[in-house]
Each structure stands twice: as structure tokens, then as C-alpha cells.
Predict the 3D structure of the following.
Amino acid sequence: MTNSPAPVALGTEQARTRLHELTVIDVRTPAEYASGHLPGALNIPLDHVRRALPEIRHAAGQGDVLVVCASGARSENACKLLAEEGVTTATLTGGTGAWASEGHDLHTPAACDTRAGWSMERQVRFTAGTLVLLGLLLGVLVHPALLLISAGIAGGLVFSALTNTCGMAVVLGKLPHNRPRAADLDAALAALRDR
């Protein structure tokens, strides 16, 4: 492993004033990206960052790269991954949520291209809640051992909070509605190569 540069965090005002000179990479799912993203941001979902490494490295050689997500957790993970590969990037503190809450515009694709959906956080909450209720219901109606489903989900949520990771989000990210279209990913990679 190489010595990796420490990821830098930019506040929303710093990012806003430098937006014209930054290459912005949004690591959320395509559905989240479609619901609103920073102006000029390219969508490279977190699980595709390694595949896009050559293009991101090229873009970083041309200027500063800002990695964003909904809250800053996934972008911080992406920055760490890129730093391990010797690519210096910055993350947006508070993510697109902070950007929007400070009154800055989020861009959305044209209506015909929109695949807007639930944020990953909302998908995780829905899935976890459904599984907990299902475990409770099955535990009462079928067999008490099935209460372990609810206990397992609770344990997973605690682990997720302690480690700032989310296995359920990784699994949900692989569902078809959360996957980038091949053409969209190819276009984002081409845009990085053209920087």
C-alpha cells in the first residue's frame, strides 16, 4: 500500500465559490442523483469508483476533484479509497443535503431522463423497518425463533452506526433501479477523460 494523501473536506461555501474549477463526482445511486445533484456533477456510483479509477486519476491530474453524496459518508469512503490509490480528492461536508439546506440549487435531469426515486437512506429505513415488522409478525404467528430476524436487523443497524458503513445499502445499491445505465456510466467516464 502506498502513502495515501489525507482526504480534504470542503464546506458548501468553499465548494460553491470553486465549483467552476472543480470536477464534481457524485457517488450516489443513479436514482438519488436524478433527484437532484450539484451543477455539473458526474454520476459515478460508489461501487463503480474502482472501475473509474483511471478516468478519475486523469481528471485529478487536470484539477481538483470534489466527491459528493447525500450526507458526506459515502463520499468520504470514496475519497479514502481514492487516496489509497494515490488520488487526492475532497469531499463536500454534509453532502447534497447541506448544499440544498444552504439554499444552493440542485440540478435534475430533463423529465424524460429522470429516474428519480427514494434516497438510499430512505430505502434502508424502509427495508429495515419492513424486515423488523416481518420478523415480529412471523415470530408471533409462526415460531418464536423467527424473532431472530428482527434481532439481526437491529444488530446490523447498530453495527452500521458504529462503523459508519451500511451493508444493507450495498445490497440495495445492486437492485436494478439503483444501477447506472451503461450509457450513463460510459458518458460520465468519457467526460472525465475529456477534462
